[in-house]
Design goal:
Layout: H1 3-29, E1 34-35, H2 36-43, H3 47-59, E2 63-65, E3 71-74, H4 76-86, H5 92-95, H6 97-107, E4 110-117, E5 120-127, E6 143-145, H7 149-157, H8 161-171, H9 183-196, E7 199-202, E8 209-218, E9 221-231, H10 240-257
Antiparallel strand pairs: 1-3, 2-3, 4-5, 4-9, 5-6, 7-8, 8-9
Helix pairs in contact: 1-3, 6-10, 7-9
């Protein structure tokens, strides 16, 4: 390969990585979408580069804009590709529907299904319990670095040491967006999770919220986490063992369904 060809290939890979980052940030924003300036801030791209990538993605249907043209969203082509992928890959969302609904019903609190996506944790689904104060620390599509929140800690704690360090390095820059946690706090939470068998988030996402989570494994590897979250007063220390038992039971039922 010539030097010129190698440079072109490297530039192509960089452009692809930037486009993926834009799509991930839009996925995290969900129905609220993002302005161009928001995309610049969260990806570190210059305005011309971000605008050029958004235009290319929009041309192929991977992004869309609102009526004002000022906010960007994930486009319809991604939904089509997602349905195609679900036809021949593991569909965790469908597989966990019953257990997630039962977890919310039995606990009375908000139950989340969070999936691992590289060095991030993504909210695939949530179900609301009967408790009148609803806790929405994440919406469907929300993405966070592994280690932020109980689900992220649970997955991080289930990784081998080298993978964990790689995930922490990958998420270091984005941790600045999460003012209630830090890398040192995440490391402490991981140590506690490994010792206890479950992860606890005690105000690391929102100061008034507590969350409990355990990792879901496929062939020994963490692929997702089940999480229950509520206001701090609701998840008292005395309730923790009962909620953990629910999480463990539903985790076991899900893992037994895995091919």
């Amino acid at each position: 390969m010539t030097v010129v060809a190698a440079k072109h290939e490297a530039a192509g890979v960089q452009t692809l990585a930037r486009a993926v980052a834009v799509l991930q940030r839009l996925g995290e924003a969900g129905a609220s979408g993002l302005r161009l300036i928001d995309i610049q801030r969260t990806t570190g791209l210059t305005r011309p580069t971000a605008h050029r990538i958004l235009a290319a993605l929009g041309h192929h249907g991977f992004t869309s804009r609102d009526a004002t043209g000022r906010r960007y969203f994930l486009g319809p082509e991604l939904a089509i590709l997602g349905r195609s992928a679900a036809s021949h890959t593991l569909d965790l969302h469908s597989m966990c529907q019953h257990n997630l609904a039962e977890l919310a019903r039995e606990s009375g609190d908000t139950a989340f299904l969070m999936a691992r996506s590289g060095h991030e944790i993504v909210c695939l689904d949530l179900k609301l319990g009967s408790y009148p104060v609803k806790t929405m620390t994440a919406d469907i599509g929300t993405r966070r670095p592994l280690g932020v929140g109980a689900a992220g800690v649970a997955v991080l704690a289930a990784l081998d040491p080298a993978e964990m360090e790689g995930a922490l390095r990958a998420g270091r820059d984005r941790l600045r967006d999460y003012v209630y946690t830090s890398e040192s706090a995440i490391r402490r939470a991981v140590r506690d999770a490994r010792a206890q068998g479950y992860a606890l988030s005690n105000g690391e996402v929102l100061p008034s919220v507590r969350g409990l989570a355990i990792a879901v494994r496929d062939k020994g590897k963490p692929i997702a986490a089940l999480c229950v979250a509520s206001i701090r007063e609701r998840i008292s220390d005395s309730r923790v063992p009962g909620i953990v038992a629910l999480l463990q039971r539903h985790r076991g039922e899900i893992e037994r369904q895995l091919p």
